[in-house]
Design brief:
The protein contains seven helices and no strands. It is mostly helical and 257 residues long.
Length: 257
């Protein structure tokens, strides 16, 4: 019975999400109650920042790690599209939350959940804009030192956003009274994404094994990390016979003649 009631509650939450989903200024004119608006806010943030953001990273690292980038769609384009969608959903979710706080008569930015959520949205959009104007797009070279430094910083910020986002979403679920089944489902889903991300990162940075046809053949007395000695031009007379070294073929007329 509890499982059936949980399913009914989840379906009711989804229906409320679809019924109350509004964009931009339409949210300000919505007549939904505060509880429904908080539910919509939770779905938007969970799907956008809590699932799509890490999914975009997993897709990019996985496609590059396994060499699955098709010619018509590179991994970073798909990654950028998913991150942009997640950022838009986060902004809409913030507007919905502000409307819900007004409806409930509460004070804005009261508690670390709302403050950290606002900070994360700002960081996400700085992250997205910085990627759009990265070195090699508006100027400079994509192979230069500036792009390499930007790429390291971009990855560091992206990976740092994930745990803060997960903590904020779980706190929001607690504040909104989300049942344990939905919380566990989110933890399992995002945990699977993080595990996949870790595996793909390991695969991407594994050294490539050379095929037997292209393996280096070690020369006697010369290691694989050493270069064989260079032989310069021979001096005059070097090809003449040295009396101290016996010839392999006797001098004189051919014995067969």
């Amino acid at each position: 019975v509890s499982t059936q009631s949980t399913g009914v509650e989840a379906l009711a939450d989804m229906r409320a999400f679809l019924r109350a989903l509004c964009l931009g200024a339409l949210v300000q004119r919505a007549t939904c109650d505060a509880s429904t608006l908080f539910t919509v806010h939770g779905w938007l943030m969970t799907i956008g920042l809590g699932f799509l953001m890490p999914l975009g990273a997993v897709i990019l690292v996985g496609m590059r790690g396994f060499g699955l980038e098709p010619a018509c769609l590179t991994g970073w384009k798909l990654h950028a599209g998913i991150q942009l969608l997640a950022g838009i959903m986060a902004v809409v979710g913030m507007v919905v939350a502000m409307r819900a706080v007004d409806e409930a008569g509460l004070s804005h930015w009261d508690g670390w959940h709302s403050r950290l959520g606002l900070a994360l949205i700002l960081i996400v959009w700085v992250h997205i804009i910085a990627a759009a104007v990265r070195p090699g797009v508006l100027g400079g070279s994509a192979e230069g030192a500036a792009h390499s430094m930007w790429a390291r910083l971009h990855r560091a910020v992206g990976y740092s956003i994930m745990p803060m986002t997960i903590a904020t979403i779980l706190r929001g679920m607690q504040l909104n009274g989300v049942n344990q089944q939905l919380r566990a489902g989110y933890v399992i889903a995002v945990g699977a994404l993080l595990i996949a991300l870790g595996v793909f990162l390991v695969v991407r940075h594994m050294p490539m094994q050379a095929s037997p046809r292209h393996k280096d053949v070690e020369m006697p007395g010369v290691g694989l990390d050493q270069q064989p000695p260079k032989v310069g031009p021979l001096p005059n007379g070097a090809l003449e016979h040295n009396p101290a070294v016996p010839r392999t073929r006797p001098e004189g007329p051919n014995q067969l003649e």
